[in-house]
């Protein structure tokens, strides 16, 4: 995967195809950090400082270091090849923004669902949304230092993952590690049978 073919904020001259993906997951799982780590341009982010009023609706249980929140979406770009560019849209994780997710998923080719092993069940909703929209996706376990570690088999069972759904671990703060879910997603998309009718 190559991401340095564009200069500054402009697309490389040969880019002729674009791919849209969505990045979903619960509140404070690392979506904004993920998009920022892999984007070749300065990502668009709607991260705002949390207020006392926000704490009423966004539970901070187990998230004492969390002081900002996404209030709309995150957007980033990554050039994959000389002619293909990837656009990433990260959705907010709070239930009150659920109505936005369906709009973000329009036109997407696939997605990444982020998981914190300390809050596994909180990612079920994002996985369900991907499946309801019939979008292929990968599950990326963000390796928080304080979260428990489980084997792949344990994670697949807890997440009730289909055998063909890729599962990867990554540290979304590190660019090389954060790229692994994107590489897995592209491979997953390429391995799927073509939806185009045979000629």
UniProtKB/TrEMBL annotation:
Keyword RNA-binding: no
Coiled-coil stretches noted in the UniProt entry, renumbered to this chain: none
One Pfam family here: ATP_bind_1
InterPro entries: Gliding_Motility_GTPase (IPR052705), Gpn (IPR004130), P-loop_NTPase (IPR027417)
Keyword annotations of the record: ATP-binding, GTP-binding, Hydrolase, Nucleotide-binding
CDD domains in UniProt: Ras_like_GTPase
Keyword Zinc in record: no
Protein family (similarity comment): Belongs to the GPN-loop GTPase family.
Descriptive protein name: ATP-binding protein
Organism encoding this protein: Streptomyces humidus
